[in-house]
Amino acid sequence: MQVTSNQFKHAASLKLADPKVQKALRNAKGKLVVARSRSIVELDNFEEIREAAARIRDFGLQHMDVLLEEWEKKAAAAGTIVHWAETPQQVNDLVIGIARKHEVRKIIKSKSMLGEETNLNHALEAAGLDVRETDLGEYIIQQFGETPSHIIAPAVHKSMDDIADLFAEKHGRPRLDDIASLTHEAREILRPHFLDADMGISGANFLVAETGSTMIVTNEGNGRMTTTMPRVHVAITGIEKIVPTLEDISLLLRLLTRSATGQSISNYLSFTTGPKRPGDKDGPGEFHVIIVDAGRTKVLASEIREALRCIRCGACMNHCPVYQNIGGHAYGWVYPGPIGSILTPAYVGIENAIDLPNASTLCNQCGVVCPVKIPLPDLMRKLREEQVQKNLRPWPERLGLRLWAWTAARPAVYGLLTGIAARIGKWLGGRERLLHKLPAAGSEWTSGRDFPAPRGKTFRELYAQHRSRGTQ
Amino acid sequence: MSARDNILRRIREANGHEGATGAKERETILARLDARVRGPMPTMDWETLPRFRERCIAMMSTIDEAGSFAEVPRAVASYLKQKNLPTSGACWPEFARLDWAGAGLRVEARPSHGEDKLGITGAFCALAENGTLMLLSGEDTHATTSLLPENHVAIVAASRIVRTMEDAWDLLRSERASLPRQVNFVSGPSRTADIEMTLVLGAHGPFRVHVIVVDA
Questions:
Q1: Regarding beta strands B62-66 and A451-452, do their DSSP bridges make them parallel or antiparallel, or are they unpaired?
Q2: Residues of chain A contacting residue B203, judged by C-beta atoms under 8 Å apart
Q3: Which of A141, A155, A157, A403 has the fewest CB atoms found within 10 Å of its own CB?
C-alpha cells in the first residue's frame, strides 16, 4: 500500500471537516467502546488474563526462531507447503507463482492486513488474475477502489447511503435502502464466486507451534469458504503470529474478540492443519503458508519490539481520541490509530511517517485497553526521541527547541524574556484577554481556537513577590 | 542464503543469540509446548448444560432437546415447520439411518453443495462457555454441510458438552492422534456488522443455527 503518512496533518484536517466521516466515527465509537466494556466484565480476572497474554506473546517473540522451526516441522508433516518471504515483493511473487503453477484464474480473498501491506490485490490484478475480496467491509472497499480505514471494520467510514449507491451501480440492480438487504445482496453476488474460485487467500490470526496450524477468527463465514472451497489455499502471515500451544490460543481468544467487537467469542474460529486428507470430500488439494518478515525482525531488534505482541484487535484505535475524530485514512498506511503510529514508521521508515508518533496526546487510553499490554505511549515516545536524534524534525522546530534550551539554562535571560513576552501578551490580549493568533508554531494552535493571554506577570515574578511579602 | 535462513538469523540476532539455539535451550522451550499449561481462567461457577443452553441463545442459535437420536428427525421437522423452512437437504453419514422420511423430510447423506437449504451435522463436541460447536473436517464430517446451507441443524449428545476450549482440546487429544485438516468452532449463525456497525445475520454462512441436544 502506498504510504501517505507524511500528509497526516493535511489529511486529518480534511477528515475533521467532513461531516460524513464525522457521523460514521461517532456511530462507531459509541458502539465499539461500549461493547468492549460490557464484555470484559464477563472475565472477573481480566487483568490476570491480560498479564498472562502479554507473557505468552513475549515468549513467542523471545523464542520465535525455535517456535517457527517447530511450527514448520509440524505443518510440513501435515502436508502444508511452507514458504518464507523477506519482503512484500517476495510475498506477492510467491502468491503469483503458486497461482501460475495451478493455472488459477479466479481468487477469493478473506481479510488480510498483511495483504494490504504488500499491496497484494494490485499485484495479482497486474498479473492478470481476477481477485475478489469477500469480507463484506473489504468487498465494499474494493468496489469503491479505496483502502480500509479500520483493521476490523474496513468500511466503517462509509454510510449505508454510500453503499446503497455503490451496489446499485456495481451490481446493476435496483437501489436498496436497508442494511440487511444490502448485506444479503452482497451474499448473493459473492456466493457463485466462492463456488467456482480456483484459489483462496487468507491471512492468519495465529500460528500454533504445537500443531503446525494456522488459525483465523471470523464472523461472516467467508474465511471458512476461502479456506475450504477452492482447490488451492494460500495463507500469508507475519512471523510474529507464532503462539506456543492450543491452550495459549484459548486464553488469547478470550481477550481478542472481547477487545475487538465486544463479542465473547466470534462466530467462527478455524484452525487449519494441512490440505485435504485422504478420503476428505472437501478442502483444498494444496495448502501453502507464506511466513513473512517485511520489517518485523527489524522491530524485534529495536526498542519498540513490544509492538510485535499486537493481536490486531483494534481496541487502541477504538479508544484513541485522535482516531475517534479523524478515522483511519489520515494515518496514511495499513494500520491506523496508536498501533499504526508505531508500526507504520517501523515498517515504512521513520522519515516517511514523521507525524504519526506525534499524533497522540499520550493519554494512555490505548495502553489501558490493549489486551496484550503493549505500552503504546512509551513506544511513541521512543519514536519521538529517535526522530530528534536523527535530526528528522523540521528545522524551525529544532531551532526553536535549541533556543529554548539555551535560554532555559540561563535563568536571568529566561526571566527577562518571559517577562517581556508576558507583558506584550497582556497588551495584545486587550480587554478580551485572548490571543487570536500566535506567531511561529503557535499559529497552528490558534488556527482552531484562541489562546488565553498572559496577565502581565510571570510565575517567577509572582513567586518572588509572594516570598518577599511573606518574609516582611 | 535462503529467505528462511536470513529471517531465522535475523530473529536470533534480534534476540541476542549467536548461531542456532543450543540443544538444551531448545529442549526447555519445546518442553513448554508439551506441558500444555493452562493459563488463568475466569471464575466459572455455572453448570455445564444450562450454561450451554443460555450461551447458544446469546449467540443467536436456537436450541431444542430430544430424548434419543431416534426422536431427532421429528424434532428437526417441527423446527422447520414452525419457521416455515425448506425440508430437504444433506446430512452427515452418521445420521443416514435415522428415519427422516418418516418425519416428512428429504435428507440425503452426502456433502452439501451450493443448492441445499438445509445442512444437518453432528459435532465432535460442544463448549458450554460460549455456546459453541466444535466441528472437525473429515471423510464423513463434511465441512460444507455446516457452511453452505442457509439453515444448519447440529445434533449434539449431552454427554459431549464440555466446559471450555481447553477441555475441548484435551478431549480431542485423548481421542485423536492429530488434528484434522480443519477444526471449526461455530458459535451461532454467520453475521456481519460491516455496514454502519449494524448487526445482520446470514453474511456468507448460515442464517440460522439450530442445536438439538440429545439425551445420550
A1: unpaired
A2: 136, 183, 187, 219-222
A3: A403
Q: From the list A44, A134, A297, which residue is nearest B43 (CB)?
A: A44
Max Cα–Cα distance, chain B, nearest Å: 71
ipTM of the prediction: 0.97
CA closest to A189 among chain B residues: B204
Q: Quick count: other Cβ atoms within 10 Å of Cβ B124?
A: 20
Return the sign of the alpha-carbon dihedral for residues A356, A362, A368, A372: positive
Angle among Cα A415, A419, A424 to the nearest 5 degrees reads: 155
Cell numbers 496484550 correspond to what residue? Answer: A372
User: Which residue do the cell numbers 474478540 mark?
Assistant: A257
B125-127 and B132-136: which strand pairing?
antiparallel
CATH number at residue A130: 3.40.50.10420
- On the question of pLDDT at A205 being above 60, the answer is yes
Which residue ranges form the domains of chain B, and what is each CATH number? 3-35 (no CATH), 48-214 (3.40.50.10420)
Q: Measuring CA to CA, how many Å separate A383 from each of A328, A329, A342, B135?
A: 20, 21, 8, 45
Answer with the residue of higher pLDDT: A271 or A24.
Answer: A271
Q: Are B137 and A280 in contact (CB under 8 A)?
A: yes
Test A220 with B33 for CB contact under 8 angstroms. no
CA distance A74 to A214: 11
Distance CA A424, CA A411 (A): 20
Amino acid (one-letter) located at B69: F
The amino acid at residue B153 is: V
Q: Evaluate if residue A472 carries a pLDDT over 60.
A: no
Nearest-angstrom CA–CA distance, A420 and A426 = 10
Range of the domain at A52: 5-158+198-297
